[in-house]
Amino acid sequence: MGKRLRDNLTSTYFEAANKLNSKSSRHKIVAYVESYDDVFFWRQILSQFENDRVYFEVMLPTRVQRLERGKKAVLMQLLSNKVGQSMIACVDADYDYLEQGATPTSKEVTNNPYIFHTYAYAIENMQCYAPSLHDVCVAVTLNDHAIFDFEQFLSDFSEAIFPLFVWSIWYYRTPNYNKFTITDFLKTIETGNFTPNNSEEIIQNLRRKVGKKVEQLQRQNPDAHQSYQQVKQDLYDLGVTPTTTYLYIQGHHLFDKVVVPMLSKICEKLIRERENEIYRESVHGTQRRNELSCYTNSLEDIVPMLKKNSGFMRSEQFIDIKADLTGFMQSLDFSETMPQPKVSTAAMPQHSTPPAIQQH
Is the pLDDT of residue 295 over 50? Predict the structure, then answer.
């Protein structure tokens, strides 16, 4: 048993602490997350389930704050067998969702009713939800001119990498996962320098690289055709489609290597466009300087705007998260009647379970 109080915090502890408050006080549910960036993301979601009887407090376990890597593993270890109706965990799905209980961590993430996950690989994937990226550009540049089709580009990007993504999951489900790692996959799908004018060339080059790698993996695994097709079907059943693959690759790669460079180029072009407009329409130099100064001071940075992007709430993944939380809220029992949130459970996700997978 831990010597410090925080080493022994459990759902039962928080439930007992709630009972010390007056009967009219709202019941606090502590939601532990993996990192600082997760706090605001999950706050946006959990706040929708608060009412006059229940509220959430999103927190980071102290030990997790000190770590740069392996935060999820540490969080799961700290909260193992401790979560409940007064203490929950909210984590990135990573590949654990796609494994559907094949490993101990995956089993905990997918089956524990008090652990909630993103369905997409990570919160970064949700923040980069394609239909919301134009809104991010508007927030950054204050220019609503749609000069680039983000949805089409990420759809084409997803279709180009999908065959190799299936191989990545195929390998991840075998003892030979170290022969084609996530790092190997990400290296293959790097897009290089992005400009609005070379987006089609980027996709064509990506298709060539992926095709070459797929042929190599097929030669190395001549008997894998049937099992590859099974993995592909499993992914379809879990909601992964060729046009949405970007939501299931490593979040930091998507955020840092694909979306931020793309937004940077598009926003730069939109800012120049607005500045040129000010130059054209200004009557005299003083007005031009004032307008330019006002506009420049109103601009925002891309990364903070992207991290605060709430457009993911239009996604299928968010519907699944909301359905899980609806079920949790309806299961709460504090020995007294609680009002239920007015959220439909009609969209509760129904996912099939893939065949048994070898643990690694």
Answer: yes
